[in-house]
């Protein structure tokens, strides 16, 4: 029987382990509920939400958005590399994605440090309660995504994936893209829409 | 008829062919999508930096976010190549918070 080409053809299920997609759906469901809760809480006190939105660092959010999108692009390239049997390139793209993830963590960490210096807590007001809980929940997903990408990179470096068998890379990539996807809604909702 | 090529050799040829096709297709579709995502992000940031507000602006910004999410689902998550219900899983997810957020902002504007 001829071996299948590593190129992507029509498929019935999304790339990666199906279990990660069940997990992704659950996570997306939780974020959808929190997004809606934020939007409806805002409708009860628009002035407060607009006033405190102005205290956020929109430039930091822009850097973080660009970092996550770039990391996602790097992960796409890592997957393409392993499909072409280029293990070294796969590892390099994954490490580059991890670098972008680290940038996100540092920028977001500096934002939190600034807020905590100002005495901001979850109980400061409704806006900050949503802002801190929503962004920190997402922040933890970024950290988990980095751990997953790191584990995939280590296995890829050890030759654990091939053009025929790289489900682990697809699984890690799908999780990372979910983290990016959530931020693409979170960024305009929290930092821009008013 | 039996395949005259050994499996390893065929795999290597397939990989080389895939590499050649991708080089010919440079820039790749995912690169165009990446650049588009960066552009839409800068537009969103510019709207925020200009402190533009109101229902129309908010819904436009939300629309940009949904387009970006759809691009990520289709091109980065690979759902474009999927047939059947999983093809639309991200698109449907985007519609749910999109509709709820849009409704909440519309109610707040009244």
Describe the structure.
The complex is a heterodimer of chains A (194) and B (110). Chain A is mostly helical. Chain A has helices spanning 18-44, 46-53, 58-83, 87-117, 126-157, 167-192. Chain A is elongated, with a radius of gyration of 19 Å. With 110 residues, chain B is mainly α. In chain B, helix 2 packs antiparallel against helix 3 (55-76) and helix 3 runs antiparallel to helix 4 (89-109). The relative contact order of chain B is 0.08. The model of chain B has no long low-confidence stretch (mean pLDDT 89). Classes of the chains: A mainly alpha (194), B mainly alpha (110). Chains A and B meet through helix 1, helix 3 and helix 6 of A and helix 1, helix 2, helix 3 and helix 4 of B.
Separate helix tally of chain A: 6
As a percent range, the share of helical residues of chain A equals: over 70%
Query: Roughly what fraction of the amino acids of chain B lie in strands?
Result: under 5%
* Mean pLDDT over the residues of chain A: 95
| Biggest pleated-sheet summary of chain A | none
Q: Can you summarize the main beta sheet of chain B? A: none
Number of strands of chain B: 0
**Topology pattern of chain B, helix = H, strand = E:** HHHH
Low-confidence runs of at least 5 consecutive residues of chain B: none
Shape of chain B: elongated
Rounded radius of gyration of chain A (Å)? 19 Å
Count every helix of chain B, treating DSSP H or I runs of 4 or more residues as helices: 4
Mean pLDDT of chain B: 89
Helix % of chain B is over 70%
The N- to C-terminal Cα distance of chain A equals: 60 Å
Q: Largest interface, and how many residues on either side?
A: A-B, 64 and 63 residues
